[in-house]
Amino acid sequence: MPHNTRYPSPSSASTGRSHHSSSSTSYHYSPVQQTVTINRPDVPDFRFCMELGLVLRSRTLDHKESAGLEKELSRTLTKQNIPNSVITSPLKQTSSSSSYAVQVLDSPSSREWTITTEASIPDHAKDHRFGIKLVSPFMRFTATKHESWLKKIYTLFHVLEANFEVTSSHQCFTHIHIVPERGYWTYRQLECLAKSALYFESCLDELVPPYRRRSVWAKSNRYNAYFGSAKSMRQCFDKFDKGGKLDINGLAMRMNWCSANSATGLSLSEDGQDFMTDTYRWSFKGLVAQGGDGCGTVAFKQPPGSTSAEDAVGWVMLVGCFARLACVLGETIRPEDKPLIKSLGEWLVYEASWCQLPRVKILKDLLRQAMPEMREVAGGSKGKGKDVEAITFDEDSRLRAKQGERELVGEKYLRMLKHIH
């Protein structure tokens, strides 16, 4: 991927190809003293599923509990021909249901929106506002008719804005889950994505508000219990192969490994041992839940709550293009070079154009929001990107509550696999 060294803009990259061509093409860019030609192998198309955590209030009814609001939301979406279902209680139903392999009878469809409560978002019942989670259908990022998924997102927000007050809090979120179109990952794809996530973490931090850079719900992968001791990005990369070649489970655990002595560990570790958790910027935990054979989603969980269609579309574009770039250029990253949001942004926009995405201006606007001057503030005096040293009592209780929830995206994923295989 691009570095801080000198190279032409993406517009000067090799263009002797057609969009979505299956043939190998090349990117060209020129670091300081050499020219690097990168063969572009077949890039996987991606499917994605979005989780929207928002605070909603009805414009017409004063609901005293979230169940009433969920039912009204479902009726309203149905009237607008938006397929949906409600899961009033998102709690796991069996002791073994922590694995995606255990599919409960009322699994949500992978082709409709799912409405449920969200334990991480505080309710304000006196004001009739409740934390609601909307889980999207699985959609193809680079489908021939891109307007299909954009239309679904715009239609959803049109209904929300017309019938509900849509607000966000520090606990609200936009999670983007991705998986290659065929439904599973190769080890190479995951390693390229993981290294890209670590390398560009400081750049992606610049795109989110400060409170999402030190959130207990989106901790730093770079400074987790496994990579945190590394003094350089080169040492981080070397850790992937420490002790022999990793399998997918090993890679996922390294990316999401949490210290029992951390604030999150003190809340969730049951035996005082380090453990894996999905409360990181990039969650690879879904891969382990599916058995480590490449099945499952990877989620980018750092974005704040999206209160408009443009917000949600921007994050989908960013994650989809980032994943595609990681698969193309992830092996060429030089960890000694400093990543820059400007160069990353240029290549993200270029990839969006390559995919012929409409409304690329939304992605450009998101990238213009970068706040590099806040990076030091977010990390505090003890280092960039490091997480807070303590969590509140409310966060502690909500972290525990989340452990008892079903993995709705995982259930949708299993349903999706039945349709594509």
TrEMBL record:
Chain intervals with Low complexity compositional bias: 7-31
InterPro entries reported for this sequence: Amidoligase_2
Pfam families documented for this protein: Amidoligase_2
Region (Disordered): 1-33
Superkingdom per UniProt: Eukaryota
PANTHER family given in the database record: AMIDOLIGASE ENZYME
Protein name: Amidoligase enzyme
Organism, as annotated: Podospora bellae-mahoneyi
Lineage: Eukaryota, Fungi, Dikarya, Ascomycota, Pezizomycotina
